[in-house]
Amino acid sequence: MVAAAFRRRRECFYVLGMLLLVASGIYFFFPGPPVLTIIHLDGERQESVAAIPVTAGSWFTIQYIHSVDRLPIHETFLVDDEYGLLLSEFRFIALGAGMGDGGGDIVFDGRWTVVENIRKELTSFHLRVSSITEQTLLIGDREIKLAEIAPESGLLKFEIRRGSRAYLMLRGGG
Known about the structure:
Blueprint: H1 2-29, E1 35-42, E2 45-53, E3 59-65, E4 72-80, E5 84-92, E6 105-109, E7 112-122, E8 124-128, E9 136-139, E10 142-145, E11 155-161, H2 165-171
Antiparallel strand pairs: 1-2, 1-11, 3-4, 3-9, 4-5, 5-7, 6-7, 8-11, 9-10
């Protein structure tokens, strides 16, 4: 009687262990959500400093102060299934040095000039961190000051990574 109870308990633990193993496999090896990955590039070294799950159609904004004009600029990016990222909107108060023409439709919104419907396709983009320009990433309800995740003059690469959670963890983006 004791042996039968022990055998049933052992079988129960075996079944639970197998279920846990299968659930872990599904979680780690099936495709997960796309991830906005921010990588600090330092010569040959690359370090993932942020990995934020996103969905196609979601957006994030990088806001900063123009280094010459000292006026705010907001660049909004859309997460896209096909291209990864699209620059979709650009907001500024005064067109500063080096900003160029990104195409799109120009709308005036109070004191802001808004260039919308840009749809510039990007697989990734780079940004050099500066405490002077006060760069901030706005994504969902999060606000990330870039000077807090990379050193002054550090080079950051922004990209969307896709794959299983195990793959993303191995690549440093999950």
